[in-house]
UniProtKB/TrEMBL annotation:
PANTHER family associated with the record: ABC TRANSPORTER, ATP-BINDING PROTEIN
The organism's place on the tree of life at top rank: Bacteria
Keyword Acyltransferase on entry: no
Name under which the protein is recorded: ABC-2 type transport system ATP-binding protein
UniProt similarity note: Belongs to the ABC transporter superfamily.
Length: 295
């Protein structure tokens, strides 16, 4: 399978939400990483045929997805950022209802709902009303509804938003498990959501891709060095002003800083391995200024 996003552009009045975006997906998890307003949701809505691009094309194995219509939607699963659910429905009834909307025969829907509730850990709460579920459980129901038609393409818009760290890890593992034999596009602004599970990461800024590749490739692409050093607390404001500081940790008498800089920032600074968070900060921090990521 090959999904091609070819030179996509989408404008809302004067705002260019997606700007000549191109990318190719063949298998595994693609992590769409960007700050708020980068254009992630707009891109995903186009991929789900909910929005038509003003310019550019999306093709699945060479066929325009907007021409494919129902046959494309049949193999698509989508978890929107704010997914609508019926608060008074039980989990099971809600999933059965969505199954009916997706055109599944009742016997097939019943079987799929059972399998997915088991897989997503919802079996114990199947009789509970949706409105009584915790944030994490609601998200599980969201992913279960997206998986009802056993989609080949799964689009997840910020699926871990609002989850606590434990739930976030569990959810990450679940997505990883579901990704076998599928293409998954997962958007987030949290680096750790995709750092361990994405086969490829797309860093998105101002509607376009600024960098793409595996975690390793992204780390290798860092044109600057990451340093750690200790400084007197009084020096911290000057260092923060002058450099990109990716971490500050206060000790009793001194402060440990992680600094991204071409040159050694202070005398006793030691170079360390860059993390994906450093790469993210390098490209997205305000000090990147001109949008090219160059200081
Ligand atoms: N329907 C719309 N009408 C007008 N402007 C819109 C519309 N949808 C999105 N935008 C604008 O397009 C830009 C990209 O928005 P989008 O929601 O795609 O970004 P995002 O990366 O998903 O952000 P977030 O992480 O906050 O959800 C923003 O400036 C947003 O205000």
């Amino acid at each position: 399978m090959e999904l091609n996003l070819n030179d996509l552009t989408k404008k809302f009045g004067p705002v260019t939400a997606v700007n000549h975006f191109s990318g190719k997906m063949t298998h595994g998890i693609y992590g769409l990483l960007g700050v708020n307003g980068a254009g992630k949701t707009t891109l995903m809505r186009m991929l789900c045929t909910l929005l038509e691009p003003d310019f550019g094309k999306i093709t699945l194995d060479g066929e325009d997805i907007f021409q494919m219509g129902g046959s494309y939607r049949k193999i698509l699963g989508y978890l929107p950022q704010d997914f609508g659910y019926y608060p008074d429905f039980t989990v099971k009834d809600y999933l059965m209802y969505i199954g009916a909307l997706k055109g599944l025969r009742p016997a097939v829907a019943k079987k799929r709902v059972g399998i997915l509730m088991e897989k997503t850990g919802l079996t114990k709460v199947s009789g509970k009303k949706m409105k009584k579920l915790s944030g994490g459980m609601k998200r599980r129901a969201g992913i279960a509804q997206a998986m009802l038609n056993d989609p080949k393409i799964l689009v997840l818009d910020e699926p871990t938003a609002g989850l606590d760290p434990n739930e976030r890890i569990r959810f990450r593992n679940l997505i990883s498990e579901l990704a076998a034999e599928r293409v998954v596009l997962l958007s987030t602004h949290i680096v750790s959501d995709v750092e361990y599970i994405a086969n490829e990461i797309w860093l998105m800024k101002d509607g376009g891709i600024v960098l793409e590749g595996t975690v390793r490739q992204l780390l290798m692409s860092m044109p600057e060095t990451v340093w750690t050093c200790f400084a007197d607390p009084a020096m911290v404001p000057m260092l923060v002003h002058k450099y990109k500081v990716s971490n500050i940790k206060s000790e009793p008498d001194q402060v440990e800083l992680k600094i991204i800089s071409q040159a050694k920032p202070v005398e006793d600074a030691v170079p360390v391995q860059a993390s994906l968070e450093d790469v993210f900060l390098y490209y997205f921090d305000e000090k990147a200024g001109d949008g090219s990521g160059l200081l």
